[in-house]
Design a protein that fits this description.
A seven-stranded mixed beta sheet has the order 3-2-1-4-5-7-6. The longest helix has 25 residues, at 2-26. It has helices at 2-26, 35-45, 63-70, 82-91, 126-140; strands spanning 53-57, 74-79, 98-102, 116-119, 144-149, 160-162, 165-170. The termini are far apart. It is an alpha/beta fold. The protein has five helices and seven strands, in the order ααβαβαββαβββ. The chain is globular, with a radius of gyration of 17 Å.
Length: 172
């Protein structure tokens, strides 16, 4: 019985490593955002409100989505890790302002009502992310705001900076 339990736990561990490690290879690893900082940036960096739809690229467990919805905005999470998507779906089951999908951002479109894109990408992906957001801004026919946590966007000037967050206006 003990050996069977250990085998099951070992396989669960391997699956978790593959899920979390695999998404780290295709994007940034799961690093939770700090709730206090999110409240500050959604007030001081970009004032989120009822007219906004924030899209979180790599939404993880939904901390950014929750902070956005608490500001009155709608929130849409895009996540590759099925376990984190499930956690978010359960977490927000009774919150109609929050939606999470399991998708690869690079192979999907932003919702038409998107106003702000939040990303905690890494340096190697920022050029690709911005190129995709620029394409989405062109497709939507209007500017989008991009909030980048910890990484500046190469070749772009930020509009505003607050702590380790950078706000960009991405024009079509």
């Amino acid at each position: 019985m003990y050996n069977q339990c250990m085998t099951v736990l070992k396989w669960i561990g391997i699956i978790l490593v593959l899920l979390f490690g695999g998404t780290a290879l295709t994007g940034a690893p799961f690093v939770p955002s700090r709730r206090k900082e999110l409240k500050i940036i959604f007030k001081d960096l970009y004032k989120l409100g009822k007219k906004d739809l924030l899209v979180d690229l790599g939404s993880g467990d939904g901390k950014v989505l929750k902070a956005a919805s608490e500001c009155g905005a709608k929130a849409y999470g895009i996540e590759l890790n099925p376990i984190l998507v499930l956690i978010s779906k359960i977490r927000f089951i009774s919150n109609p302002r929050v939606r999470t999908v399991m998708r690869d951002f690079f192979h999907s479109d932003l919702p038409a009502e998107t106003t702000v894109v939040y990303v905690f990408g890494d340096g190697r992906d920022m050029k690709r992310i911005v190129k995709k957001v620029e394409g989405q801004a062109r497709k939507l026919g209007r500017p989008l705001h991009l909030i980048s946590h910890a990484f500046e966007v190469p070749g772009h000037r930020y509009v505003k900076k607050c702590r380790a967050y950078f706000l960009y206006k991405i024009n079509p």
